[in-house]
Design a protein that fits this description.
Two copies of one chain form a homodimer.
Chain A (H helix, E strand, L loop, with lengths): L8 H20 L14 H33 L8 H26 L7 E8 L6 E9 L4 H10 L4 E10 L2 E9 L9 H20 L23
Antiparallel strand pairs in A: 1-2, 2-4, 3-4
Helix pairs in contact in A: 4-5
Chain A binds a DNA duplex through helix 1 and helix 2.
Chain lengths: 230, 230
DNA sequence: AGGCACACGTGAAGC
DNA sequence: TGCTTCACGTGTGCC
């Protein structure tokens, strides 16, 4: 493993010394390698300096990379004493994991665009009761939640999970619906269409009574949608 | 940069050859380095084989690490032609970014534990109006949202964002509050305490009228909390 | 020409 | 002991 500053600076330097000594001995025995006239004057110290700066630069490069690897070790728990390769494997796993989880979460959580929209997609399909993930995004209004509730209750589906996020007068409602007594998965497509149509109707009812069609209504507080007494 | 398979396989081998030739020349001139009796018999080919397998193993190690780096390059867009160090810098940035976004999203989204709890933390503190992120987690009840709404409206804070997630009769309400006309950041601590106390009172009012103290009330639908007409 | 980045082989430690 | 991992210096190609 060799932690800290090893005296390994000797060995590589040892190979270098070996090569240099070899060069010197060849010269001493008169065995010029090739292109004698190329080295005009003072070529030896210049080459030595270049070699030294080269090794120092390479050293700095290694330190940079290792510092980054150390940062990665500190970032991912449980990799303190791991191999470089194992660390990178873990890093790759983390990137993939976080990427998928982030996208699959944020696509359902973040407040959507300014345009009204209705999304319905099959959540789990194979094996057991399937579930639908439906979301509707529109401008906030006091009776939206009640309308949405009544609409969903009219469907033969059970609301497993509901999530509401609102910001700036826009609201996104996302629900997860499941069918308790479903024996055939082939029905899920018709359920998907039904849910989509139902939410579309909510959207149309939302667009129906706009006092000022061109302007968006001003919402004083996100709790507009929560008010239990109109 | 040197992409692909360089013929650099020669040079390192060249240095090795130089060292080996040097070794051989020393032996030919009878200049034993040290410890002559140590090499008993057949030590030369054995050492050569060990050295060869060693270099091959090191080569495989490098290939493994580089393969992982290549995978990371494919994982993060825009790093195809980057340095190793720059690539790792980008990887670190990605990990941090994804980690924070995932945690800050999931900690507000996921359904909390079974225990009731109130959390209040300062969101943005330095520069401009600060904001508080407050959340309350408890069992669902019809008047919870109305209570929460009235409680928050009684505070001199504005509700910027509200998010509700409920599952299995448990509900988590998370709100982001800000103070519009705050000139001093030192007040945020008292606001934090006020919000915490207010939410605690909501929690206590929730625990007050339990028909069956030991058992949790059964909730038929998450839209219980949304019902606009009691 | 000089700096930079890379792959290579090798000595030293840890199991 | 052998196998693995690491840091090092070096050769080499590309700006």
């Amino acid at each position: 493993m060799m932690r800290g500053i090893p005296e390994g600076a000797v060995h590589g330097g040892l190979a270098a010394q070996a090569a240099l000594v070899f060069e010197r001995e060849r010269k001493e025995r008169g065995t010029r390698p090739e292109r004698v006239g190329k080295n005009r004057l003072g070529a030896e110290p210049r080459a030595a300096m270049a070699l030294k700066s080269h090794s120092e630069a390479e050293r700095r490069r290694r330190e940079r990379i290792n510092a980054h690897l150390s940062t990665l070790r500190s970032l991912i728990p449980g990799t303190c004493k791991m191999d470089k390769a194992a660390l990178l494997t873990e890093v790759i796993g983390r990137i993939k994991e976080l990427r998928t989880s982030t996208t699959e979460i944020s696509q359902g959580v973040n407040v959507p665009a300014d345009a009204d929209e209705v999304k319905v997609e099959v959540n789990g399909h194979g094996g057991g009761p399937f579930s639908l993930r439906a979301s509707i995004c529109c401008a906030d209004r006091p009776d939206l939640l009640a309308d949405l509730r009544q609409t969903l209750l009219s469907l033969p589906l059970r609301t497993v999970k509901a999530e509401i996020s609102t910001v700036g007068g826009r609201v996104k409602n996302e629900v997860v619906l499941t069918c308790d007594g479903c024996e055939d998965d082939s029905e899920c497509s018709v359920f998907t269409n039904n849910v989509h149509q139902a939410l579309k109707s909510v959207l149309e009812r939302a667009a129906a009574p706009p006092e000022f069609p061109g302007k968006r209504r001003r919402i004083s507080s996100p709790f507009h949608a929560m008010s239990s007494s109109p």
